[in-house]
Amino acid sequence: MIKNKKIALASLFATLAVILGGIDNLIPTPAPGVRLGLGNITVLLAIYFLGYKSAVIVALLKVFLCSTLFGSPTVFLYSLSGAALSLLAMLAAKKMRCFSVVGVSLVGGIFHNLGQLMCAYFLVGKGAIYYVPVLCASGCIAGVLTGIVAGIIIKRGRGLFGEE
Amino acid sequence: MKKADFIVLGFVVGLLLVWGAFTSGGEKVSIYVDGEVYKTLSLKENAKVKIETEYGKTTVVIDDGRVYIKETSCPNKLCQKGEISKAGQSIVCLPNRVSVLVEGKTKETEADVLL
Question: What's the number of domains chain B is made of?
């Protein structure tokens, strides 16, 4: 892909991530820490269309912009640890080539919440461990849902954006 | 979706079911502040605990075997949403760095077998 097109698409995805993150904040959830993670769709798009370098940039921008706009320094720490682990897991899952977009997103969802839990473990202590099942389950569901959406976009957008 | 997707999904769901099967009824309530034990109470006795730290004020209530956060000074009030009663369940208030944990009969640190 031409470099300019890549930069333009990466910034477009980052912008979309911020908008989706804002919408995400408005959706009520049953328990704290449980989120739909709509912004993850754009990170998935970046992984599939632009490659891992751009995906890292999109994910970092998403974390930084979303937490400065909608969150607090604590939120930044949580999002960063979640996004870092999730991105690593998704890139590894994609490299394995045996997962579809939904599978990659599922792995990402679970690891995002595990990353947040690791951060919570350092901030609030042992109590966080007991929250693992809730966040694993919600990560699973959210991962599958965002994966389905991302899968549709990736399938239809191939002609528009081209592959990495 | 591919086969590997379902394998991972099945694996996680299985793990969660196993985890769920091993949690029992609660006995004690531990309140942690900033990762350290602040107070340990019995789940059977009704109580009201006020916690004031540099991060904010939190009021924990034990009522009829259930634990919930009555009042908190944090902005989003997420911790006021639910109540807990079973071992292993917890309420975490991140802004105030308070976590409330229901514990079962046995302590995790106890060894299974002593040699």
Answer: 1
Whether the complex's predicted ipTM is more than 0.90 is answered with: no
Cβ atoms of residues B76 and A74 within 8 Å:
no
Report the DSSP pairing between strands B90-93 and B83-84: unpaired
Q: Residues A121, A9: contact at Cβ < 8 Å?
A: no
Cα A138 off chain centre by: 14
- Which residue range is the domain that position B78 belongs to? 26-103
Mutate to test the interface with A, among B1, B28, B86 (most CBs of A within 10 A): B1
Angle of helix A39-50 relative to helix A3-26, nearest 10 degrees, comes to: 160
Instruction: Please tell me the distance from the alpha carbon of residue A37 to that of residue A20, in angstroms, as a whole number.
Output: 8
The CATH number of the domain holding residue A88 is: 1.10.1760.20
Domain that includes residue A131, residue range: 3-161
Q: Which residues of A touch B (CB under 8 A)?
A: 30-33, 72, 74, 78, 96, 98-100, 102-103, 106-107, 110, 120, 123-128, 130-133, 136-137, 140, 144
- Give A14-72 pLDDT, tens digit per residue: 999 999 988 988 887 777 678 888 989 999 999 999 888 999 999 999 999 988 988 88
**Contact B18/B91 with Cβ under 8 angstroms?**
no
Report the number of distinct structural domains present in chain A: 1
- For the cut 90, the answer to whether the pLDDT of residue A148 exceeds it is yes
Amino acid at B103: E
Q: What is the pLDDT of residues B8-49, one digit of tens each?
A: 888 888 888 887 766 656 678 888 888 788 888 888 888 888
Does the residue B40 lie in any domain? yes
